[in-house]
Amino acid sequence: MARISRRELFKLSGGGALAARAGGIASILALKQAPAYAQATTLHWLRWNDFVPTSDALLLKEIVPECEKALGIKLTIEMINGNDIQARTTSAIQSGSGPDIICALNNWPQLYPESVVDVSDVAEEIGKAQGGYYDESKVVANDGKKWLAAPWCIVGALLAYRKSWFEEVGYPTGQFPQNWEQYRAAGKLLKANGHPMGQTLGHTFGDAPTYAYPYMWSFGGKEVQADGKTVVLNSKETTESVKFMTGFWKDAYDEGGLAWDDSSNNRAFLSGTCSCTLNGASIYLEAKRKPETYVTEKGTPLWQDILHAPLPKGAAGQFGYHLPMSNMLLAYSSNQKAAKEFLRWITSKEVYQKWFDTQQGYTVGATTIWEKDKLWEKDPVMLPFRTAARAGRFPGYEGPADRHAAEVLSKYIIIDMYAKAVQGMAAEDAVNWAHGEVASVHA
């Protein structure tokens, strides 16, 4: 695999066997005491600020002390904005020091194969114990030879929408728009009523790519052929998707969404200034957590007026892209053995269950066992997220989600293709530009 230069890494970041291990974590959990080797070991775990605050609170208040008790590891958890993680990763790799473990979003692990530790023993053990991984969790963290990271979770990406407002424009409960034409027509009526849809086409890790890629696929567009080398973005299908987007954006969307990040649409929806947006379940969960703060124009709890739906169908089908996360163990770490035991421990069923419960369905586990959890019996509004990860594709389609796909994603090429057209560039020119950029990545 080709090595990425330091300059390229800074550009991408935006800132410059198994059997022997199988019973190991079970023994630790059973004994409830730290293994002797790990005494006084410290670990630094860098991850994102979760959109579900109670999950971060659990990690800091319960998991940190439990980790020291169970493993003898003094755990430091640092939480930063998800959009800043890639820059921190690059900086740490370049300096040869930093967090021992970094939570990677999307297929970022594919960018750093020479700089991470092979965690195949950990990943295979957890996968075997928990019903196997979703395809998406595997393709982003495994390069076909080894596991570059230990899968952690998948954030389901679905449309959150105001039930009552859609009813007003002719779409009662159970009859959400099924295709892009219907969705655009509904959006035009909603915008006329002062309730535009909300979407970002900005440089942000979550909402922009999880919208733009499935939208392109639904029209039949794709980056490359199955060989992973032949770039075919400049197609009639892709061009049609861009042309449709330019009119759709003006008809239905809050046009200021171009500058939004992954939290802007949350704020817009919760404040009542947008009617529908692609997101994880954090909008609904936050509204439910604070029913007296977030209310409708009628004064009723907002959460009671929120439902979820998948992105609409296109001529080529209906697709989703749900955000995977995995934990990379950096090669410069001097605590690699302890770090692997920590990854085994934190992703074990007993320990992970506590974190999963606080998520309330905002994420599904990276393994299929979590679909069977009793959590899904608690709230029918959350049920669409239960199996969302089974319907996902991933950037790089129809080729692999490899380093090239990760680079295209990190450079926001597909998102910028649509953004340029929305801002006035001819659809054909926007597609030609994007095709050239993707081709340069694959050169």
Characterize the structure shown.
By secondary structure, this protein is an alpha+beta fold. The protein folds into two domains: 6-155 and 322-382, Periplasmic binding protein-like II (D-Maltodextrin-Binding Protein, domain 2); 158-321 and 411-442, Periplasmic binding protein-like II (D-Maltodextrin-Binding Protein, domain 2, 3-Layer(aba) Sandwich), CATH 3.40.190.10. The chain is 42% helix and 11% strand. It has 18 helices and nine strands. It has helices at 6-13, 18-22, 24-31, 53-71, 85-95, 120-129, 135-141, 163-168, 180-192, 207-219, 236-252, 264-270, 282-289, 336-346, 349-359, 403-410, 413-422, 427-442, and strands at 41-48, 73-80, 101-105, 150-155, 158-162, 276-279, 306-309, 323-329, 363-365. The strands form two sheets. It has a six-stranded mixed beta sheet with strand order 2-1-3-8-4-9, sandwiched between helices. β1 (41-48), α4 (53-71) and β2 form a beta-alpha-beta unit. α1 runs antiparallel to α5 (85-95), α10 crosses α11 (236-252) and α11 (236-252) crosses α17 (413-422). Residues 13-22 and 27-31 have low confidence and may be disordered.
